[in-house]
Amino acid sequence: MAQEDAVTGVDRIFQPIVDVMSLFLFFPIGGENGFPFIVLWLFVAAIFFTLRMGFINFRGFKHAIQVVQGKFDDPHDEGEVSHFQALATAVSGTVGLGNIAGVAVAIQLGGPGAMFWLTLAGLFGMVTKFVECTLAVKYRRVLEDGTVLGGPMYYLTRGLSPKGMRPLGQGLAVLFCILCLGGSLGGANMFQSNQAYAAISSLIPGLPAWLFGVILAALAAFVIIGGIRRIGAVAEKLVPAMAAIYAIACLFVIVVNIAQVPAAIGTIISEAFVPSAAVGGIVGVMVQGIRRSSFSNEAGVGSAAIAHSAARTDEHIREGIVALLEPFIDTVVICNMTAIAIVLTGVYQDTGDTLSGVAMTSSAFATVIGWFPIVLSIAVCLFAFSTIISWSYYGIQAWAYLFGERTTLIFKCIYVVCTFLGCLTSLGLIIDFSDLMLLGMAFPNLIGCYILSNEVAGDLKDYWQRLTSGQMPTYEQQLAFETSEQPSNKL
């Protein structure tokens, strides 16, 4: 009875806050069936930045691959992690349950056509990531010991102050950090550990929640306390592994049904423009696709900007170009692999309300791989753990901005305890609250990105001119040139 009273007390505290935040973030623009405000806020920004930056998502794609391969890495540049480690850390924070469950929800509510709009929103979102991550490196702080402090809170203050907007910048930065702390502790930590336990307990019946919680919290603590260098080192190994496991399973389903792939793609495209009445017409399909894309890749939320601010580089535009790969990997590639598997197997047509989220994806794969629930459970655990460690760094940076970097150990301890508690409790409204805070981060972040977008466009023009004119050699070319310039010791 006492526990029920405690739960009821928590509900009474959080319910009004959740209701108000939901009303603001999901207020339908254009009528009852219009776009939720936060979805429109993110999508319009993505279109604006894509046009303003001259479609850098397409013309900069090849260069982004070259940078990630390390061709421009200089170990003497300021920063704590390589371009690839920064990308892996950020991707590990976005690739997760949204790619498995979120895609199924989009198809269930919006039909196969939702995937067309999800993909389109992902392509536009690439440039939003470019803008916010470019600004994060440009306005980061590098301490004497080499530690990097960066993210939206720094470009909101350091970027807006010279424009006479210091009070606005400070207010937006504090708001962003408060929202980031809530999002990191709840949806990005407790919810992930909760789902990881649910996945592993299906494989190991009778596994005590407290035991799994202790193991998961200990693993998280080992990585988190080591800081961004250890987080990046783990992410660069974990992300390719978890992506490979899931991708191989997806490809197996696609290969088995290879003859039906053209028809599945045709269904996705045709129903994007001529959907069934059951999904609310074309606006309903667009809303579901764009909404799931925004939730999946987090373009505009500002979280990835914190990870990329630690990249070892003296070219902020270069790191922004690396960052535009994230929505492509997360949304255009992984989400579409899930979607094609679901559409190919047709499980979305005959399940009704009996299957949703992870269950629908599992059902789709089980049609050709009987043991897929095992693979899915492993993937869910890996995705959850990668999100936990990545978002710990985001929370640490927000805490450091508000309370000072010397106190971050306090937050790390709180974070690890929350990882443990997430396995034990039904989170309910706390998760709803933290998810809303996570989405709310996009409001202060994008205001700053709009104001500073002219700076980014100018810096991009200068960088691209130097790159295409041959003034920007790779690190190997630079070393070869410096070696050839050294005087010979021979007589």
Automatic annotation (TrEMBL):
Please give, as recorded in its UniProt entry, the membrane topology of this protein: Multi-pass membrane protein
Query: Per UniProt, which keywords does this protein have?
Result: Cell membrane, Membrane, Symport, Transmembrane, Transmembrane helix, Transport
Q: Where in the cell is it found?
A: Cell membrane
- Primary location: membrane
What are the transmembrane regions?
Answer: 12-29, 35-55, 86-108, 114-131, 168-187, 207-226, 238-259, 265-287, 328-348, 368-389, 409-431, 437-457
Name the domain of life this protein comes from: Bacteria
Checking NCBIfam families in the record gives: agcS (TIGR00835)
PANTHER family reported for this sequence? AGSS FAMILY TRANSPORTER, SODIUM-ALANINE, TRANSCRIPTIONAL REGULATOR, LRP FAMILY
Entry similarity comment? Belongs to the alanine or glycine:cation symporter (AGCS) (TC 2.A.25) family.
Write the protein's name.
Alanine/glycine:cation symporter family protein
Q: Which organism is it from?
A: Almyronema epifaneia S1
